Fold:
Amino acid sequence: MRILIVDDDPFAGAMAEAILDAEGHDCKLVESGVEALDAFGEEGEGFDLVISDMHMPLLSGLDLFREMRDRGISIPFVLLTGDDPAPLRAQVPDLAACLTKDASLEATLPAAVAGI
Amino acid sequence: MVAERGNAPSPAAPNKAESFQIRKARLRASFLSQLPGRLADARRAVAELRAGELDHAQLDALYVLFHTLKGSGATFGFRKISDAAKRAEQTVRHAMDSDGLVEAALRAELDRILDQVDALALAADVQVDPDVAPGFELPGPEPQPEPTSGQAPDTRPEQPADRSQRTVYLCDDDPDLAAQLASQLGCFGYRVRAFTNLADLRAAVDTERPSAMILDIVFPEDENAGPKMLAELAAGEDKAIPCIFISCRDDFGGRLQAVRAGGSAYCTKPIKTVELLEFLDRLTNPHPPEPINVLVVDDDRELAQFHATVLEEAGMVAKAVSEPVQVLSLLETFDADLVLMDMYMPDCSGPELSRILRQIPGHVSLPIIYVSSETDVERQHKALAVGADGFLTKPIEPDRLIAEVGLRAERMRILHSLMVRDGLTGLFNHNAIMQFLEVAVANARRAGTPLCFAMIDVDHFKSVNDTYGHPTGDQVLMALSRTLRLRLREDDMVGRYGGEEFAVVLNGAGIEQAKRILDALRTSFSNVTFFSDGQEFRCTFSVGVSDFPTFDTPDAMTEAADRALYRAKKGGRNRVEIATVQDALTEPAPGSPETSDGS
Structure:
């Protein structure tokens, strides 16, 4: 699967990338929502999935999700958050998944991606 | 965005061929290594907060910083760091919600949390895995072509004493010192876990027994807390964990407490890493140490043989000689740790033989013990005055002989290994390597074998120090010394010549083979990746190499190697140049302006 990872923390982003690379996915890592939108606009590449951090400066993960849907990009979207994911899940039912950003990501992220 | 994150720490470019576990460990180590930098940034930002002022920008920056720390801390499994960061994040959020007005209590609260995170960062595995050390990583030995028959292999495949299996726990309430020592010992292959309080150490010991421990003596709770903890740990165990105490206390009381608790060694602060390493190697080495070599000199052939047999039975290697005249030639091939000599011999007395030995530079520190039936204490003292180290009275109890000889030889070995080593790298120091060169030239001349001498100098080392700081510069030197030790052949001698300059004596190697070996080392070292503050960089070195007999004295060899090194630097660096007789005629003497700046 071709996956776009969006995280302003390069370490967390690199970790997600490492987890998914190990599953055999093809990942691209960007550091902001703006860069993510650029990746869609310029490259027009066929990403199969977006995995984004929730809290980022300027454009949050949720903002990115809404902006993408506004632009008619309808690929699955996984949100990662350092806070409790339950309220976000309830607020945005269209998310493919909303996962807690912690050590359990090693197991939950591949499982969520496999389910898409 | 890009500009805003311009100085942010970032992990090294991923190597997708590696397994996930290795990548994870590397990211984790990288996260830990840049953590102090992040925390320092946070402290600066907190220090700039002014009570009673509105400061949205500053608070925003702090919020992002703590939020990011919370996220990546949790991702890498540092639960407590993440929790503390979360508290800080909420504290800042609260201030932002109250219109960005900075209250006096805010700074104190954030400082307190940062203190906690600092301590937590230290208690975390400073050294996750020796292969993913934050300081640098060495590529594995490259596959070598099969050596052609009759030729020694260019490199040896593995370090004989692999320390990577040895876990060491280090506990010191000074977090800076703990982190620094842990990372330095990590560079020499130990897996080190640092703790800043004894309760955490105790918990870790209960889960996994380390090969050795390094403990501070004084802790805030008690000035003898370290020894007390060791005694407590030893009480429940059949086999005590070897322990080295480190302390700024150099008083008798501290040392006594350490010895009573069962401490094996005692190092005073400031700690010399190599000294500590020497003790650690000794305490954790699973292989028995080299047997002690003893030379027994006695005109009574049978008695000499008897003493030698007693010592051999105790596991030492002993050679018996009945003629003092044979001693010097024997010492050339037999590397004695100690000489046991009869005091009264017809051709040459013990004191005379001692004087002869003491006048030979290589034997000045060779321990000598006299054996005699002399019971007159005054005469014994006189004999000792010419430089012997002890006196045993015939007849000697075998147990006493073994104990006296073993103790002195062992002590001298430790002392000797400390005297000839460079404090930073653990390589031979300048004097030692020059002595080896002298011996090697003499041997090569006698045996008609080839020999090469190389001078290695790190390229642009000054700019490494200027750009990344001296601790990083030291890491480069340690990495180079480790590369040299790992990759050179058993017979080769490596020393730190001074500063960023290293010297290698390549025994039995012709100039072509020497160049091949050195070029392989050069390539290997240029692939070492260094990390500093989240930045990655590489280093190279230049080499000048001279051979015997083209240059036939130690001085001529060093001078020629130095000129060749100068030519390598002038020719663009990162290369090996072979010394020629013409160098001396055509090149200006080294030390010209170009080598002195940023070589």
User: Anything to note?
Assistant: Residues 20-47 of chain B form the longest helix (28 residues). DSSP finds 21 helices and 18 strands in chain B. The first strand of chain B starts at residue 136 and ends at 137. Chain B touches chain A through 31 residues (CB under 8 Å).
